[in-house]
Specification:
The complex is a heterodimer.
Chain A lengths: L3 E9 L3 H10 L3 E8 L2 E9 L3 H8 L5 E4 L6 E6 L11 H10 L3 E6 L13 H8 L3 E5 L4 H11 L7 E5 L3 H7 L6 E4 L11 H27 L6 H11 L1 H5 L6 E3 L3 E4 L3 H8 L3 E3 L2 E2 H4 E5 L6 E5 L2 H4 L4
Parallel strand pairs in A: 5-6, 5-7, 7-8, 8-9
Antiparallel strand pairs in A: 1-3, 1-4, 2-3, 10-11, 11-15, 12-13, 14-15
Chain B lengths: L6 E4 L3 H17 L6 E9 L4 E8 L6 E2 H4 E5 L3 E6 L5 H12 L5 E4 L2 E5 L5 H5 L2 E3 L2 H15 L6 E7 L2 E7 L7 H13 L4
Parallel strand pairs in B: 1-2
Antiparallel strand pairs in B: 2-3, 3-11, 4-9, 5-6, 6-8, 7-8, 10-11
The chains are: A alpha/beta, B alpha+beta.
């Protein structure tokens, strides 16, 4: 079986459809396509052995292929509030940098995430964060505050957390009990853009920490694979459900590591999705859980593992 | 006591102290207050929890008059105002309209305003007050402090008068004598009495 690796293709609009066709023909998937004026960015999964081939095709078009460890993941960037204290820097800078590494990021500004004693997390915030593959907590500057409020902000969260804050990494590790999955120190509440080399190095460190955390999850998945590879299911849905192609969202179907978010109303489409035939004799409902998402009225699809269904599409 | 620099931040948390110094400098710069604030002393202790900022303003910006941004030329048939800096053009027109009526104020191009001869003397026009930047300055200073302070510190007491200002904030109820016990000593260090 060929291994699909996440890559980003960057190039011009001119003849980019040839690159998309090539990826498709090679058995890869384009999970996200961004057209920005003259430029196109394709977040895709391609067979490892064929990267050089794609590079060859892209070269005369002025396109480049870069490895992007976070393609196919949806990450929540959690900020204590939406006030000027925490936005736009650093939460937006973090979200933007993760996007460059291929992730689909959503920013979540908590209603009452500020203050060490008064910080809390409501059920909607908790459920939305839990719908992601990973949450990056962009917290503040004081060791004492982070230590005191983190337990409240992580209550009920079962996705991996990467914690950022101004104290050193070692300090963050010391004050979190039980430990979270990743830490990046030296990134607190700041009032300017990340632009100095040492600040950008911190963001690189964050991307590394996030990919390391997700790799651990990927290793688990390799031991008990999903019944269907999420990008593959995305392609099937796009082919079979006409309305998906009519959506104007940047990502009408968002690919996650273990599922998908389909931006169609749950009430109207859930029953239509369940009997959908994904392969001969296999209905979608057999291999996935179709759930209402807490994000607007979207549909959340969680793919069941092979061990549960005994089916591998 | 040593003389305070323009910006001093003290905190029991060494990392937090350094970051707050940067935050304060960034905010003052963003809001264009670097030249306005002479001293700013900040004490932040999340353990108490308390955030105190106190300081002194430098000279207040003076009122802007027509002569500051325009040349007044009294011609034979009319008075021509030659605008050098457009920043205050809108409030200038408002004032002229209010005083001489819209029909008397003509603006043939962006940088020229024409008035009929005899409505005012050169001196009178040049000295006409158009805007007072200090009106919004107080608001800006308090906004800057609110912006610098940790967000969770919602209980606050603020003061700005006669070039001196302080801002005390906490997550919990502030003690009634906080100004006497915590803020006045800071002003003493700066060599001013509140």
């Amino acid at each position: 079986m060929t291994t699909l690796v996440p890559v980003t293709y960057k190039g011009g609009v001119y003849r980019h459809d040839e690159v998309m066709d090539l990826i498709d023909d090679l058995g890869g998937y384009v999970v996200q396509k961004h057209v920005m004026a003259q430029d196109v960015v394709l977040q895709s999964f391609v067979p490892r052995d064929d990267i050089e081939l794609i590079r060859g095709v892209a070269k005369p078009l002025g396109g480049e292929v870069i490895e992007a460890p976070l393609v196919g993941t949806e990450i929540a960037v959690v900020s204590p509030s939406l006030e000027i204290h925490h936005l736009p820097h650093p939460a937006c800078d973090i979200a933007e940098y993760l996007r460059r590494a291929g992730a689909k990021t959503n920013m979540i500004g908590l209603a009452r995430g500020f203050g060490k004693r008064i910080a809390n997390l409501n059920d909607e915030e908790r459920d939305i964060i839990n719908e992601h593959d990973l949450a990056v907590y962009a917290l503040g500057n004081f060791e004492e505050c982070i230590g005191e409020k983190l337990p409240a902000l992580r209550r009920g969260i079962h996705v991996p957390i990467v914690l950022t804050g101004a104290p050193e990494r070692e300090t963050l590790i010391r004050i979190t009990d039980p430990p979270v999955e990743g830490y990046v120190g030296g990134v607190g509440r700041i009032m300017h853009r990340f632009k100095r080399p040492e600040e950008l190095a911190k963001l690189d460190e964050l991307v590394e920490e996030v990919s390391r955390t997700l790799d651990a999850r990927r290793d688990d998945l390799a031991r008990d694979p999903l019944s269907i590879f999420p990008p593959r299911l995305m392609t099937i849905l796009e082919e079979q459900i006409y309305e998906v192609t009519m959506l104007t969202h940047p990502t009408p179907v968002t690919v996650q590591m273990e599922g998908l978010r389909v931006k169609l109303p749950y009430d109207l489409y859930a029953d239509e999705l369940r009997p959908l035939e994904v392969a001969e004799g296999i209905a979608l409902g057999d291999i996935v859980d179709i759930l209402p998402s807490r994000m607007r009225n979207y549909i959340l699809i969680r793919i069941k593992p092979f061990s549960e269904t005994g089916i591998l599409v | 006591m040593p003389q305070l620099k323009q910006l001093v931040v003290e905190s029991p948390d060494a990392v937090g102290r350094e970051v707050y110094e940067r935050i304060a400098a960034d905010v003052l710069q963003d809001l264009d207050l670097v030249k306005v604030v002479e001293h700013l002393y900040i004490y932040a202790d999340p353990g108490v929890p308390i955030f105190i900022a106190a300081g002194v303003l430098r000279h207040m910006p003076r009122a802007i008059r027509v002569g500051d941004f325009a040349n007044v030329n009294i011609g034979e048939k009319m008075i021509v105002l030659d605008i050098a800096d457009e920043t205050y053009l809108a409030p200038l027109l408002q004032r002229l309209w209010a005083r001489y009526g819209k029909e008397s104020v003509d603006q043939p191009d962006r940088f020229t305003v024409v008035l009929p001869l005899g409505v005012a003397g050169e001196e009178e026009l040049e000295q006409m007050v158009i805007a007072d930047p200090s009106e919004t300055l107080y608001k800006d200073v308090i906004y800057a402090l609110q912006y610098i302070a940790p967000e969770g510190f919602k209980v606050r007491r603020q003061y700005i008068k006669g070039g001196k200002f302080y801002y005390v904030a906490s997550e919990d109820t502030l003690p009634g004598d906080i100004v006497e016990t915590a803020v006045e000593p800071i002003f003493e260090r700066m060599g001013v009495t509140l």
